[in-house]
Specification:
Length: about 160
């Protein structure tokens, strides 16, 4: 994912250098389409995604500059933290779904618990409140197998480190 973002940043630089409005428009839509589910509110503040402009001309080059800034910031944040939390949740869910040793009922229980952890991670509460909410999950985790425990512990650690 980092390589894709770096490539988009380079493409933004190229468009800003050439001032090619048609390439800018295409690149904006490609970035939002590819990264919209990964980077929250990536289209926020972009002229090309604002409906109230009326007769105002869309500033595609301004949008490219804004997107480049958002991508750079996102890349710096994920590198500082050492992980990409949404990608980690996706990875752990995939691991659970692909674990053939789990019954459907066990898989559902674990995925529900992962959903709970994700909801806690998205809250704006301080770490000590998040930890208080995650403690029962740690107790529950003691009843699970090693593979599940390792995967879920990655999530809990990442949530508390974020």
């Amino acid at each position: 994912m980092d390589e894709l973002i770096k490539d988009y940043i380079v493409q933004c630089d190229g468009v800003l250098e050439t001032k090619d409005i048609h390439k800018a428009e295409k690149l904006i839509h490609a970035i939002v389409r590819m990264l919209g589910s990964r980077i929250k509110n990536i289209d926020q503040g972009l002229d090309s995604y604002t409906s109230y402009l009326g007769n105002h001309q869309i500033d595609y080059l301004g949008d490219i500059a804004l997107l480049k800034g958002k991508l750079t910031f996102y890349l710096e944040q994920t590198q500082e933290k050492g992980f990409d939390l949404p990608a980690l949740f996706y990875e752990v869910r995939s691991s659970i779904v692909n674990d053939e040793s789990l019954s459907e009922q066990e898989m559902k229980e674990i995925l529900d618990k992962i959903d709970e952890i994700e909801a806690i991670s998205k809250s704006n509460e301080p770490k000590n409140k998040k930890w208080f909410k995650l403690r029962p999950t740690m107790e529950w985790l003691g009843t699970k197998g090693l593979t599940v425990a390792v995967n879920v512990l990655k999530l809990i650690t990442a949530v508390l480190a974020a």
